[in-house]
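Troubleshooting: if your tokenizer reports a length mismatch, compare against these two reference records.
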Amino acid sequence: MNAAPLFVVAGPTAVGKGTVVRRLREMHPQVTLSISVTTREPRPGEVDGVDYIFVSDAQFDRMVDNGDLLEWAMVHNQNRYGTPAAWVDEQRENGLPVLLEVDLAGARQVKRKVPGCRSIFIEPPAWEDLQRRLLSRGTETLEEQARRLRTAREELAAAGEFDVVIVNHDVDRTAVELAEAMGLN
């Protein structure tokens, strides 16, 4: 039996990936979104096991050492994020398409490990839009905002590595384009 498809969505910080993916899942509830493991502290309103699986550095180290993660990365030189491999495999073997929302390093790892996955990059209409979105969130310190913007420039330069690039002009329109790229429409 062939496994269901695996889709990888990446893009720079504050481009709206999470919002677009939530809208996509409202339109196509059959798409299963992987929940990432992270060493960062929860933001206000985030729920462990729903938004992320929050773990200690020691727990994350064990997961890496045991090969439990399909991909993992240090993001913004600060916190680690990863995708539980067994969960992804189980969903796909049960016929459920899986969507991973990851950073650039994670997307590169998944593409190496899972040939045939479909990679999709979400980019902002303009650099100024990305800056405005990041600053308006108000969830990061000025130092972290500057670090995320430096990382975003590197991430934007890698858009050509992806199968599809979608510009996030509007959440609904972008979600429809993402669904099309995933063959859901």
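Reference record two:
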Amino acid sequence: MRALLVVNPAATTTSARTRDVLIHALASEMKLEAVTTEYRGHARDLARRAAESADIDLVVALGGDGTVNEVVNGLLHAGPEPDALPRLAVVPGGSTNVFARALGLPNDPVEATGAILDALSLRSERTIGLGLTSGTPGTDDEGAPPRWFTFCAGFGFDAGVVGRVEQQRERGRKSTHALYIRQAARHFLDDPHRRRGAITLEGPGMEPVRDLALSIVCNTSPWTYLGNRPVYAAPDASFDTALDVLGLQRLSAPALARYATQLLTSTPERGPRGKHVVSLHDVAEFTLHSKAPLPFQMDGDHLGLRTSVTFTGVRRALRVIV
């Protein structure tokens, strides 16, 4: 077997020594080429070349959710062909690693490498569904390029928080859960749409859902983790179905406190609920429109402001080692 290992040298929880150990372990079982990323988008470019090559059987991503997202977009640049594309394996190296953990992999990179090698020896894999976004015809965002996401996307409030966190990280702050909580509080105070949302959700055969202040799109569950605690925004979301949506139509201080408590105490059986909560399950296609440009994020990566985003749930898009 020939494999490409894409290594993010800035991976939050992986030291250079640990990376050397992981590379040695993988190289002992396969013909391995290890490449360290040098710029934003490099992992996508490397995975694209692997997808276009007839020689690569497996692409291993060593890094956080952002690295995995780039690799997935590189592999699927020409569309989903699960049987023709290299398989994907993920070694978690970021601060949260939602995608790897949602697949059932250990959060420790050494343990995850062992699990991947065991799965390869047993030929254990699964074909998962992914989310795809694109610009909406007839809008200012029509020309936005299609982009895949592995576990979640957000339009509105939560994406604004992600954007604030990225700004703080660019200033040298470490990505911690406390940083997210502080930036969420600051964004709440600054958000002009928190009391009456600006987002409308529309889809084939659906009644429009209006006045959303927050919209979270999930491709799997949990939505995220606080340390070792899973947080379930859409408990029924799954790699085996299309997309789930959690929308909130009011973000007053009491409502935000209530929904935050529900998220922190959520379970695989129960997520946020209430009069102003919108929950949709297994939706194949829909569009989120906004009256004003709003922040947009995918897999924890802030992508700027949009007024409209079209979402598609694509089943059986990619083979992964588990």
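Descriptive notes for reference record two:
- The CA atoms of residues 8 and 98 lie 17 Å apart.
- The chain has a mean pLDDT of 92.
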